[in-house]
Amino acid sequence: MGTQMMEKMKWLIRSRNTCVLATASGGRPHCSLMAYVPDDACGEIYMATHRDTTKYRNVSDNPHVSLLIDTREEHPGKQAPELQALTIEGRFQPIRDPQKRLWAGSRLTAAHPYMGDFLKDPDAEIFSVRVVSFLLLKGISEAYYEEAQGARR
Q1: Residue-wise pLDDT tens digits, 27-50
Q2: 57 neighbors 67 (Cβ within 8 angstroms)
Q3: Which residue, 88, 109, 72, 99, is CA-closest to 151?
């Protein structure tokens, strides 16, 4: 499949700014609509939440997550052949390094200015999802799978 398809997957990540974050704990799934920014290589995706939320409790208990990024707003109400949905398997990682947290916070605020006050809240936590794999669905029948470089499950 190769580099060309991987670049299409990364383009989709870079061209959007919200995703669905799926978490699970105790066998119970939970989905959240999240604002995000990727790193330059699309190997990590940064988000923020309050610590006292179901999603944060879930990722603290089970770091395996899934993200969904799609193009449905470009094709409302249709199952167009051009519709794309990218599922990303990843692992939640808290950001412990203060400089990396500051860097990720500034990227989040640049992409989502309304998050500035939210990120100043002492209960806000910036975290990353380390990408393990990508699954791109195009239309209803084309599927492309790629493992991330250096990914650990």
Answers
A1: 999 999 999 999 999 999 999 999
A2: no
A3: 88
- Helices and strands (H and E) in the chain: how many: 4, 8
Domains in the chain: ranges and CATH: 2-147 (2.30.110.10)
pLDDT digits over 133-151, tens only? 999 998 888 899 999 876 5
Query: Is residue 117 within a helix (H) or strand (E), and if so which, with residue range?
Result: helix 116-120
Phi-psi group of 26: left, alpha or beta (phi > 0 → left; psi -120 to 50 → alpha; rest → beta): left
For residues 34 and 45, give the distance between their C-alpha atoms in angstroms, rounded to a whole number.
Answer: 11
Question: Residue 77 and residue 62: Cα distance in Å, rounded?
Answer: 34
